[in-house]
Amino acid sequence: MGYKLTVIKDGNVLKEYVLDRPETRIGRRLSNDLVLEDLTVSGHHALVHWHEGVVEIEDLDSTNGTFLDGKRIVRHAWLPTQQVMLGSCVIALSRPVSPKPRSSFATAFADTNIALPEQMGSSRQAYLEVRTGPAAGRQLVLDKPVVTLGTPGVAVVSVNCQRTLNRYTLQRQPGGTGTVLWNGIALGNDPVRLTENDRIQLADVQMVFGLKN
Predict the structure, then answer these.
(1) What sign for the dihedral angle of Cα 92, 95, 96, 98?
(2) Which of 39, 45, 146, 190 has a beta carbon 3.0–4.6 Å from 27's, enabling a disulfide?
(3) Architecture of the domain whose range is 3-94
(4) From the record, what ranges are coiled-coil (predicted)?
């Protein structure tokens, strides 16, 4: 089974692309296999190599560089647990999930919804409210499985969202020397669970985590 690339920007999924060839070229020009219409992405920015189940990402002398989990690379193996950043676009690598055949029992109850205790209160929407900087007052709705924030080489964090479980975790991505604080405490490599009114500082930008109905 091959791999799938998911392009994310500002917490929104822009497009998905299935790797079906040994080399996939990514960039802003229409001649690329995966076109990213973003001015921070070079014309021919990066090349994805796929051979015998191994995936590698290679920078093509781009202007803004190619970053793997916050570290600038030239060519490096790429694992599904890692994220690539090209300009302001984040690319996640995953294996496409093939639907399993349903049993007659599962088919009979296909339209039946059973509320689990963990799902109670899942209607509340999570968001980050920016408190400082040019975007002060803006709310970023956390409605994607993974929302990545920050600047490569400075500080990058990801918020992993499990809305049905009311579980949101914050994790710093490797690389960068900028400040990342969670409730005034320096954020390490381990993820932390977010609760309402938690304060996050990313470099010189301060945000507050919130939930609303």
Answers:
(1) negative
(2) 45
(3) Sandwich (2.60)
(4) none
Six-digit token pair at 42? 């070079």
Q: What is the pLDDT of residues 166-203, one digit of tens each?
A: 788 888 877 767 778 888 888 887 788 888 899 998 88
Instruction: Tell me the domain boundaries of the chain.
Output: 3-94, 125-212
Answer for the pair 26, 45: CB distance below 8 angstroms, yes or no: yes
Taking the C-alpha atoms of residue 206 and residue 141, their distance in angstroms, rounded to an integer, is 16
In contact, 80 and 32? CB cutoff 8 Å: no
Query: Is the pTM here over 0.90, yes or no?
Result: no
DSSP string, the chain: ---EEEEEETTEEEEEEE--SSEEEEESSTTSSEE---TTS-TT-EEEEEETTEEEEEE-S-SS-EEETTEEESEEE--TT-EEEETTEEEEEEPPPPPPPPPHHHHHTTT-----GGGTTTTPEEEEEE-SSTTTT-EEE--SSEEEEEETTTEEEEEEEEGGGTEEEEEEPS---S-EEETTEE--SS-EE--TT-EEEETTEEEEEEEE-
Cβ–Cβ under 8 Å, residues 191 and 160: yes
Those residues whose C-beta lies under 8 Å from the C-beta of residue 31, and which sit 6 or more positions away, are 25, 44
The whole-angstrom separation of Cα 88 and Cα 6 is 14
Fold classification of 125-212 is Tumour Suppressor Smad4 (2.60.200)
